[in-house]
Design a protein that fits this description.
The chain is an alpha/beta fold and 87 residues long. Helix content is 26%, strand content 33%. Helix 1 packs antiparallel against helix 2 (47-59).
Length: 87
């Protein structure tokens, strides 16, 4: 699985109601799981399906979207967080 930070930036530009975004890649049940954590600044959680569609179209992989409270994602410049641990 390869996702470029610029792809995440493109998703952010398409949805102005979103705050910070962080893609978290994990290893669950012997497969990669991708979750785009999104600070929701305005709008509603109805955006999830639209954002998930953009993730699939732009990144060419499926992932889910998880909305988090504004200010809850660190402002450290990291766009993709690979937390996979292989057992």
């Amino acid at each position: 699985m390869f996702v470029d930070p610029e792809q995440i930036a493109l998703i952010a530009r398409r949805h102005r109601d979103l705050g910070r975004l962080r893609l978290v890649v994990d290893w669950v049940d012997q497969q990669d799981v991708m979750t785009l954590k999104v600070e929701l600044v305005g709008g509603s959680t109805d955006l999830a399906k639209s954002v998930e569609g953009d993730v699939q179209n732009i990144c060419k992989v499926r992932g889910r979207v998880e909305f988090v409270a504004p200010g809850s994602l660190p402002n450290d410049g990291k766009v993709i967080d690979d937390v996979r641990k292989y057992n």
